[in-house]
Records
---
Amino acid sequence: MQSQTRFDVVIIGAGAVGNAIARTLSSYCLSVAVVEKEADTAFGISGRNSGVVHAGFNNKPGSLMAQLCVAGSEQFQQIAEELGIPFKRTGKLVIALTEEDIPALLALLAQGEANGTRLLRLVGAEEIRAINPNIKGVMGLWSGMTGVFDPFAYTCALAEAAAASGVTYFFNHRVAGIAAENEAEEKNRNFKIQTLSHNGFSEDKDEIAGELSARWVINSGGLQSDEICRMAGIDDYTIYPCRGEYHILDQKLAPYLSLPVYPVPNENSGGLGVHLTSAPSGNIIIGPSSEYIDEKEDYADTRQVMEALFSEGRQLLPMIDAKSIIKSFAGVRPKLTSRDQGGFADFVIKESEKIPGFIILTGIESPGITSAVPIAEMVAGILSQKETLIKKESCDLIKETRLSSLDGKAHTIVCRCEGISEAGVLDAYDRILAIGAIPTMKGIKNRTRAGMGRCQGGFCLVKIVSLLQKKRGVDPLSSHFNTLQDSLFAGRCRE
Amino acid sequence: MKPIDLMEMDAIIIGGGPAGMAAAISLKNQGVFRVLILEREAFLGGILPQCIHDGFGLIRFDQNLTGPEYAEIYKKRLLDQDIAYETGCAVTRIEGVERESDQSYTHLNKVTAVSAKGTTDYLTKAVILATGCRERPRGALGIPGTRPAGIFTAGTAQNFVNLKNLMPGKRVVILGSGDIGLIMARRLTLEGAEVTAVVEREKNPGGLRRNVLQCLEDFDIPLILSATVTEIKGAHRISAVSVCDLDSKGHLIAETVRDYPCDTLILSVGLIPEIETGLTAGIHIDPNNGEPLINQDGQTSVAGIFVCGNARYVHDLVDDVSTEAEEMGIAVARYIRGEELKGGTAQPDQTAPNSTDTQASTRREKSQNPYTITCLLCPNSCSIVYKPEITGAMCGRGEDYVKRELISPMRMLTSSVRVVGGEREIVSVRTTSGIPKQALNEAMKRIKSLIVVAPISTGEIIEKDFMTFGVDLIATSKVL
């Protein structure tokens, strides 16, 4: 496996932001590693969101959120092309359902203009119907810069681009301790990063300890970013987990929604309100709810919220019925504002004053994924203030186009709902290994969409297991479903 | 645009399961020759190869066959009749095309299919959708909780166990009492798993009465009626489900919530016609149940597109699917020849049984009389009263069945045996007739210890005079 343990930079967290930083830094003459506690990339916040590229009008003028989100939105088309991922600049509607919502809508417009968001304008009831006939509202704010993308494809592609230009990934490496040595002397500064890895699979509790060292540590630990700060001796931050639940609807409803539709946000809710998103796959996504929870990684769905989401979704789009739901899921926002405070704090992106060389990224909630590449550039800027970063002579951050599912060529179909071929599944498996991640059914699903359709893997799970056994020699008994600690099967029927 | 040479057919049959095969044979018998079956799996037979249990063919062949044996009969007929088929070939699109000519047909359908050979377009007079059905997944049920490993639909679990030699889990709760769920309760129990409960939200089980009896009651597996799973627990692999009783209106009775520890949840909560291929051509469906609207000939709302089998509505018995497909084949042949049809506008299928259908409900309901035995000889599942005298059998065999059931109940055992040197790890087997019910566990021990060498052909004797019960253990499928 990875034998190098000494790096110029160690990034903690292989989410979209960590991967984007890795990709940006990989264009310089630096040795870069990413450590991630999960088996694969996009298993946390980056894989559990609406998949919307925000235009930056929801954030306070002058905030990092506003500045980086607007920059991210402006760049996204180009980034999506470089990475070869699905992105559609659909535009978005924020709807005032009643006259009472109008002042808030006007405030959003003013805020957007102050932030430099382009293509914002108010639309009347008639134009709302013209944009999307099934949506009703007395007035709307139309944002032409908003778009939808595939967050799994995006996060994976960032990691692949980084790995391809020399970044080393350490998956299944949970950071357990950080010790700074000689932090005052910039030349001799050294961080020791202790890690723990699960030994084997199933519910095995044994863990293997490891250690990496680096001159720079970049804490992009998302929900755990506060704990990672504390390991380094920085006690300034507390992450308040705030869960958002979603429903995914059958692609049959795709014709009824052409762009994301949001209600006017409630200042105190800590989210942008339950909205409808027209994902590039054709699925409509309803959500997210907003609920402060105690456990950071409690991704459970709850009956109350599931029912509420459904009725709120129907309010925006009446043709949604219970049979349209094909899956429910949840994500958790890493908020710096508590339940009592509500609302949004700004992103924290800075080098620690206390521990030089330790870069803190915390509170990277929405619009974090839109802002990932500008955040990465900002982090590179922080490094370059301390040392000269030399660009590599040749560095290709542009990913080759991935195998598309159905391109008119010869294919044996594995996933009938999404039209995914055997070649697509094998390609996904190989790409998981190429970034040093550990294959799981979830990792294959995230990369191919096999299993995301209306049958939810009822047909393709069997085929994927058999295909990987036949073509890649994967023993089904050591296959994982979602995590390193689960196993897909209990054994063989006949030895 | 450059004109494309399209292969032109009389009928393209989408799906090579029982419905598709029976329709193809029927068309051939009607003198329609340019028939092609497009099957997306690597093999013909649809879902039958994984249904290694018995109960097939009782109506059509007056024999108690397993799924793979039933499929084999039709596969052989297909080959004998030289009917063309292609496997590993998925239809992605159907669209109507109008052709200018002086022939009687101007309306054709273009069928686009993808396979390892490439993308092919076919022109055809008729399309038969024989695409079967799919299982309702967890996501469609709205069960709160986590999303761990260990949740399988019954059919997926059945495929893993019966074709892939893989055990989904050891401690199992089954939600829903559809036939596949009941069959899997027995199958997993015989394989050594503990099925702690079958949970059904309705007052009556969803599957046939015969399956409740021979799959649950034979093995003392608790059937919890008027209850449902209200939460899934477990961070990695599923660790428990919460079960809650429902009142007569179907509302949860909160104080009845209790947890069932498990490592596996099997879902048998309904089947939905898999009609998406037809939707690409714009056929109309009933929004209430997803079933396609058809006229008296089985024709959908789009000219030339017909539908049969579970893609039309979900049937209890494969025998009924075969019969329906054969009858529809006659109408399709008339359509192809331009002859008069029964016609009518496309509407919900009038032949599909509904919940008030007496035949369908007698197949499901349990008799209130304690001196009753459900006859397992055929799907009618006659409730036969044996005290003070034997009454209630719809045929003469029922009386003999009850007499034997009272003295020494016998059951056909279906299972699988390890194969070495073949394309698969296991071959499905059955006893040629019943063995004593009490001996099933001993018989399973024996079956688990057997190893056979490929190739194995269907019907081949695996063990003669199996455990001296006077019956043979035979292979019910082939392994090359």
---
Amino acid sequence: MLTVDLARSSVRELNTALHRLGPDSNETHWRVLNPRGQHSIAVGLEQPVLVEVEGHVGYYCAGMNKLATVVVEGNAGQGVAENMMSGKVWVKGDASQAAGATGHGGLLVIDGNASARCGISMKGIDIVVKGSVGHLSAFMAQAGNLVVLQDAGEALGDSIYEAHLYVRGKVHSLGADCIEKPLEDEHKLELRRLLDAAGLNGAVDVGEFRRYGSARKLYHFHVENVGQY
Amino acid sequence: MCGIAGLFLKDAKLEPDLGCMLAGMLSPLNDRGPDSAGFAVYGAETPGHVKFTLRLPSTFDLEQLLKGLRDELGGPVGHRLHGTHVVLSIPAESAALARRALTAFEEVAIVGAGRRMEIFKEVGRPDDVSRKFGLETMSGTHAIGHTRMATESAVTTNGAHPFTTGDDQCLVHNGSLSNHCAVRRELIKKGLSFQTENDTEVAAGFITAKLKDGGSLRQAMEACLDSLDGFYTFVIGTEAGFGVLRDPIACKPAVVAETDRLVAFGTEYRALVDLPGIASAKVWEPAPATVYRWELH
């Protein structure tokens, strides 16, 4: 295991060292100390390594992640795992706004709460939040899954495309063109897979969730509206 | 951008370190607001006296001002110099008289007034501003500070935060208001006057007007949600503590840390990392459109 102490090294030095790793590197387990809320820790990783960060991180931690597993043993600032492509990011505390924004793939697990705009414009990422999410979560969400074990704030799924939203608690309000849909067996299977991947093996009854998605009235052009243009 | 740091002490043993801790909190926020900075410190009061914080021009005969005030008030006037600012101590019953007498000195600005509040603000890198005023040596129960990256109006000392909203009250702002011209016009009709074209000064004036109408600070803060359009995280200092309000969209970041010894507000967690007990503090984000207050019991 390699240890990088950010009280002694800069974030740029850490990220440069992580970017230099080749696919056959034996340096697959990294521990990062004293993050002290600094921004852009462990961004742009492209190899299947494990990076554990001991403490709270600032903005954009593990952004653009590919293949790597990044564990934050604390809270994360804005845009954790933004535009993630694959791999896994696990925040053991809370996450600030825009967690998993625009993510294309991979799994983001947040043990605590995520604030506003969680999964905004998500494009294939899976996000499991064990607490609640703030307002405007899954705004313009295109693909992927957002699973919330507690509550969702105002305007969930506003202008949503084809992402799947599952909420176990209360939804404060649904955004434009977002509606509740039946929870079929295929969705229960999908939920089971996501919850298992988040380490909740059998601990949560998938039947307790409600499913939300697009009414598909907003993003298709309706020919009867042609006169308005 | 902009950065805000607020510190409220529950444990009186920390009071001598208030300024030092606030300076440390503002330092990581330099890059969020490199063009100017300011802070309000709630220090010890002198019973029966009020404080006026004045900003003086670079060449100014302070002795002449003090003599003029002594003659006008018929008694001694205490003063303490901090760089370009001076804090006067005036008998409370002479406060109105002193305020009138100070208007004779056109080049002198009254930055703040109150029993405990002192306000210091200047153009420049926040670390430099803190050093010039000697923030690290200041003590008190609570303080709020601001680092500014100007968006809505010019980089001037008058445009730096905090803005005073009345005796012992001030406001700092991260964000920008889009209807400040319309609100300013309404407030001018009500008799308020403004020194700058700055949007935050309008927010401060709005709260002052609501308080003058007899509302509580909580009501004044709630009224902001209906009347102010734009982005804002406000931190409002009062004699007893501070309050926090974020707009309903809550784009502008805010983090609060609480321990049994203190409550700290930071635009980013980076501002809080050196505070005592931070490793075990409860750290969370204030909810949008919600009024928060922390006050002395």
---
Amino acid sequence: MTQAVWNWIFVLASFGLYIGIAIWSRVRSTKGFYVADQGVPTVLNGMATGADWMSAASFLGMAGLISVMGYTGSMYLIGWTGGYVLLAMLLAPYLRKFGKFTVPDFIGDRYYSSAARGVAVFCAIFVSFTYVCGQMRGVGIVFANLLGWKITPGVLVGMGIVFFYATLGGMKGITYTQVAQYCVLICAFVIPAVGISFQMTGNPIPQMGFGSQIASGDNAGLFLLEALDKIHAELGLPEYTGAFVAGKKSMIDVFAITFALMVGTAGLPHVIIRFYTVKTVQAARWSAFWALLFIGILYTTAPAVGAFARVNLLQTTHNKPYEQVPEWFKKWESSGLIAWADKNGDGLIQFGGGAAFAGKPTFEEGDKRGDHGQRLVTNDLTEGANELYVDRDIMVLANPEIAKLPAWVVALVAAGGLAAALSTAAGLLLVISSSVSHDLFKRMLKPDMTETEELRYARIAAAVAVAIAGWFGIHPPDYVAALVAFAFGLAASSFFPAIILGIFSKRTSKEAAIAGMLTGILFTASYIIYFKFINTEANTADNWLFGISPEGIGTVGMLLNFGVTLTVTQFTSAPPEAIQDEVERLRYPSED
Amino acid sequence: MSTDEKHRQYWRTNVKVLSALLCVWFLFSCVLPIFLVERLNEVTFAGFKLGFWISQQGSIIVFIFLILGYAIIMRKVDAAHGVDEHGKLIGGKPDGSGEEGKGGAA
């Protein structure tokens, strides 16, 4: 069977499965819509949380990031898993006991204030929108590059599917589809990794192949990472396993980014909301364990995939004549994600430090070809010796082809990428829809509406959100990547301290919490906006506060939030007795 | 002992347990993989530098065990303080996926 046939089979079969689940799990109550009737078993909730959490970025982007960054890529691995420890111990059990529907619900009730609720609603919607745009983009990338379809119909189909099961089944439909999506995405990630690991090192377990000797080729007998460091040294690139060597991030910046990602993860509303869906407090704790176990499978495989891909890429391209590059190289070149500029005119591909040319590749019109048959780029070339541009997002997608795995594996990876993007998008859409219908309408604007009305608002809000997200997927703004720094920074500097203090300190007053959240948000947002949008030229380590980049500034924003909240608490009166009793109550799993 | 006193004791135990576990968390999220990574990299095993391995594999594995440990310890603490959720969990099994699965999905 040809590649195209396999692609159709895998994509259609997985989409059919999601729709089937949506019809089977449709809901009629707001409790079903918002929190799946609080009846999701822990292991399944763990899987759903895993799929919810692992986005297009985790699936497509992370291995590529690590492959380019080496040691420094660890900040994503630690940041995005370490946050679950905070979530499991500091947030999930108590929020489950609190037993409402959304994060703004908790903030609004605990701080007895609609202003606090309003701030939380704004943050929840902003953070979720930022994130969901990236997912729709991921759907587009998979469709365009792997399946060879146009981006627009691809995104429309993706939107249609999410719309269908999110509005019909709400949280319940989303949860059970996410369980299926987890299975698809983890197979799609692990199967090619096992194939490549076995090929390169003779050890089928990627986590072990990562530390094994290379089986054949120029570097046979060397340990994989040793070989990688050696090749990097020859090319004048910073040492792969080296920590804070020249050309890599400083220790303080790695620390700040890791910490902001951990705290941000714990503060992301679409992750927190998953712990409202289980039966009991104990189940919430166990859910967090299962979730991290399922996430850990992908997150321990990703750095191995990154290293394999790096060795493969360097060995097959560096100092090789263009005419002899493998098939996958030309395929990705034609989709514009690989580009080669023969600066010294020797017909060999030289790979080295720095960018080959400024920005993303733009090609001569009419697919004009150079002397060796390569596509000609029109970008301004840089002085450096590097001639090769490789988009890091293609590492995972190209991997099965690089390793010459069968056609069905390539199709499986496509289905996996779609599953990762759709599952995360659906979770985020639910947060947006519940923030609008429940927190904004039911709790703030129209408290007297019936459950049927609220459910209708929830569905309309979900539909509008899908449409907006889809529009951004088809017309992606250039600043999507910059916005992701925003999402984590804001989650870290707004929600996290307010929720933690709301549980662990009965004394924290509404004035203190609002002042803290506003300080955190304003500080973090202005720092990011200044360096990412206003004065992008100044975005270098010399100008940063304490050498911390905009990606890591959420850590400072969070500390400021804590500081302001604790200080203002000293000067304001304690919360009303009823609220303090409520806090007392959510600390114990039992009802009495 | 009054219910209130029992609850306060339970909360103190909970805070103690999670403080201890969070110390380990900080050790494996910041101290070993970031602050001390260069020193640990001088030690190698199999094909790995120790610091590099902790930052890309070890810490994630430790995190999983930390959450598992917390769930197990707190299940015991809940029972010892009589604050566990009676009637909702059958036989103390937190992941009674079989029955709940059917119930939740119907």
